[in-house]
Amino acid sequence: MADRDRALTAPESGPTAEELLTQVGRGDREAFGELYEATAARVFGLVRRLVVDPAQAEEVTQDVYLEIWQSAPRFDAARGNALAWMFTLAHRRSVDRIRASQASRDRDLRVGVRDLEVPVDTVAEAVEIRVEHERVVDALVGLSELQRECVSLAYYGGLTQSEIADRLEVPLGTVKTRLRDGMIRLRTALGVTT
Amino acid sequence: MSETNDPRDERDERRADEPAPDSFEALRGALAAHALDALDAEERAAVERALAADPALRDEADGFAETSALLAAAVAPVEPPPALKSRLLAQLDALPQQRPEAAATTAAPPAPPAAAAPEPEAAAPRHAREPGRAERVAQHRWFQRPGAIIAAAAASVALIAGAIIGVGWAGPNGWGAQREMAAIAEASDVQSSTHEVDGGGAVTLYWSAEQGRSGVIVEGLPDVGAESTYELWYIDDDGPQSAGTFDVQGEETWRVLDGAFAPGVEVGVTVEPAGGSPQPTSDPIVVIPT
Question: Where is the composition biased (Basic and acidic residues) (chain B) (predicted)?
Fold first, then answer.
């Protein structure tokens, strides 16, 4: 897959996440350790953004990596890249945890781009992450404010579309439309080929 | 406006140009929300049933999934506590991996080495071999794909499908579910297990680890009346998780289980008050190991 111009690119050196995940799928523990080292801060960052409570975020992250270990044999590089696959697992598990624990009721749901701060002194791959970050922030800025609000409440806040409708006091159909239109715009802006 | 999460409440506020909630178009419209994990459990299950049955929907869903993964990429990394890694590595031995193909069982033995290429098992091979063709054939023989049973299941689903013309896409016996049930029955790694129920009748579970789905065909169970319903459960180490309800209409009925099938889970059936229960309130009438 030619993804030089895509946001989730692999580092220049060492095995790619796809290669590592494929090895993990064959039961390779050493590759699992390397994959963990290469991705744990990003996965944990996402989980913590959603779950907030550090102890719960750690539990969820543990579950995510155990699930990665178990389902790696089914990872299909033809249907998306490794990091995206891992983020998908992490997001879903985080959201399930939020809904199970009702923690969403009293979570801080600041919305918006400002809230996606990447500290300048993060981890080794910071440059790469900053580049991705800039692209995503630019793409979010390209949405209407109402679309951005709905997409952010859903993805970064972990709310269901019904909860978003209640919170914003708009009809559910409106939320559905904003989510769909917003995601289509993001997909285009981020150059995701379908 | 009532405060419940009953999806029927949506109908009050549906605009005239909005598709009916059960329609294919509505499911397609829900793909963006699905990629954002913004659907409730029931909506999620309906979308995933449709995805399992429809490659065109899957392509669109993949594009949205990749888009939401980029939203994840914008979040600031946070180093997890150092102890997490060693805790994880210590747990791997206890966790069998799924198989890329052929059926998985709880205590799946490692793939038998091919007779043609005997080689001692390294303790932890740095580069495990991909199973060779002979191994795969051996595995297929080992797991004995029961062709006749599959054909019967597919025919049975087709038969049932023929009997309920006019249902919509969604719902436990809708077109989406029918296609999914057929997809499970025709999966390359499908396995099945039939258990008699005390008091008459039998439940046959079909499962595909590859698809991560399972379904039941139920024959000869008594009708439990309008006050009660049968409920399906996925039972794992965390206890039972509801996988949907069904009622017996006539001699035979079927249902694709809600939620993901993971190799090694047990599937139980209980009788619950109408509408189903979040947790079982009675002992299962049958429990089927996988």
Answer: 1-18, 127-137
